[in-house]
Automatic annotation (TrEMBL):
This is Fucosyltransferase. Coiled coil: none annotated. GO terms for molecular function: transferase activity. CDD domains: O-FucT_like. Keywords: Carbohydrate metabolism, Fucose metabolism, Membrane, Transferase, Transmembrane, Transmembrane helix. The chain crosses the membrane at residues 37-57. It comes from the Eukaryota. It holds the Pfam family O-FucT. GO terms for biological process: fucose metabolic process. The keyword Transcription regulation does not apply.
Amino acid sequence: MSLLYPPLPLPGPVTATNKSVSSPFCIHLCLPRRIRGFSLVLAVLAIGAFLYTWFFLSSSAHRHQDDIVIYLQDLLHPGGSSTPRFHEWHEREKRLPQHNPDLPFPQGREGRYIHFSNHVWGVGWGNAMQELLFNAHLAYLAKRTYVFDDYTWDKTSSYFSSFNDKRIPARVPLTALLSGPVAGDPFPPSTNGVPAVIPEFFNEVCPNRTIIDRIEVDGALPDASAATLLQAWLDKLEQTEDRCVEIKEYSGQIFNYLVFGDSSRLLDIWPSISKSPIITHFSWSPLILAALVANAQVIHPALSSISPSSFNPSASTAPLSGLLALHIRRGDYIDHCKTLTNWYAHFMGFNEFPGLPDRFIPPPPLRVGNASEEDQAQYRVHCFPEIEDIVRRVREVRASLSSTTQLRRVYVLTNGKPQMLEELKEALQEDAKKGGMPVWEHIGTSRDLVLTSEQKHNSQAMDMAVAQRAEVFIGNGFSSLTSNVVMLRAAQGLEWNTTRFW
Ligand SMILES: *[C@@H]1O[C@H](CO)[C@@H](O)[C@H](O)[C@H]1NC(C)=O
Ligand SMILES: *[C@@H]1O[C@H](CO)[C@@H](O)[C@H](O)[C@H]1NC(C)=O
Ligand SMILES: *[C@@H]1O[C@H](CO)[C@@H](O)[C@H](O)[C@H]1NC(C)=O
């Protein structure tokens, strides 16, 4: 997909430890006085580089998003331990060309907008991502411009919040995670979609607006399916004349975790959303793509020549040949698995597409809240597999696909400890040898990547991007991260037998 208008310069490496490569945006804010003189020289150089790059990217011969990745690759410097603020990404969002009130209808101050102020926050990226794609699809069908918010951990006015006593960014600009129509990129021309805008612009062009409490519509529809909810909201919005609509903050989500957790409520929306430009032209941000390029040798060499369109499900790009991606949740997930057992939970909705070969049938929910040891054990194999469970499953899947697929490399999406991962690597190689299969050419993990601090904070998105494109994926059926991967793989139409679960 080529750009319809000249791309904006991309943010520099503000969060790298090496301050001498600081972005020209924040010289006076970010640097101590004694190195400002030096910085000024650098700033002049950097601005020159910016202008050159802008000119380079704007010239029609080079108007391909691929160039952005190459450009970023040189700008990003690995390392950095400070908590990222993503300041430049915010600034860049403000400069997107749709943020001009004078643009003619359907944009600008005559445009029709919808802001989902009720969106989820304070949850993991996987949960936030699934909801925002659905909201953006609803906006698209309702012919209203989608207002995209930050991925919000905390609604505090500070830049920072905390998690497990660690300082983390309170918000991440969506454009640092995603690209495509959901994050303000142009829609494909045939769709007549209007580029999404940020809340600041919505506030400017919609000082007055109709606020709809979610419960006005959903209250009458307890346990409704996703398609039913979608239609009810389309009807409601059709009856709403005001060109400015906001769904009331704190009124709960339209598509909430109960919908995403239940295939019998979720999957009837698939025929609609899978054809939406929100999904067909979904991609990852230049920040994520740059991380993949920089770490291609750890993951898969073919990643060194990617473009945003390589991740559009509609582009049907060939998978990363021979790559097996494994999603292994560790740490406090063990407690989550116990909770899931006590609920007798099913797999997440998208992890129960009828075509998927691996099914999980929960044991009869005889002891809700106090599951037996046997029931706990039954869940653990699928939710928190131990090394021997992982090795056995990898062997089964590799062998079952060997007539069509030669798996040669492994990439592990994980928050596991380095020591456990070293043991896993050894066990996988050992098992391949014992079973008479070729040893793995390379086994990489999330822990082996070299990332800037901005990328590190968004590494879940990076992991999803790898799993989306892997030739074969073994995921965790209870995880929303896995379910987003499964959704993207399904949207691309990959063979069902290449998407598996523990
Ligand atoms: C918004 O509403 C207020 C109060 O009703 C009104 O005075 C103002 O002119 C409206 N602004 C716009 C831009 O419609
Ligand atoms: C949970 O089950 C065990 C038997 O496995 C029983 O001893 C215990 O009292 C039960 N606890 C509750 C709160 O029901
Ligand atoms: C996987 O599914 C595809 C399509 O149904 C089929 O052609 C292929 O043979 C299957 N592979 C294996 C190893 O079963």
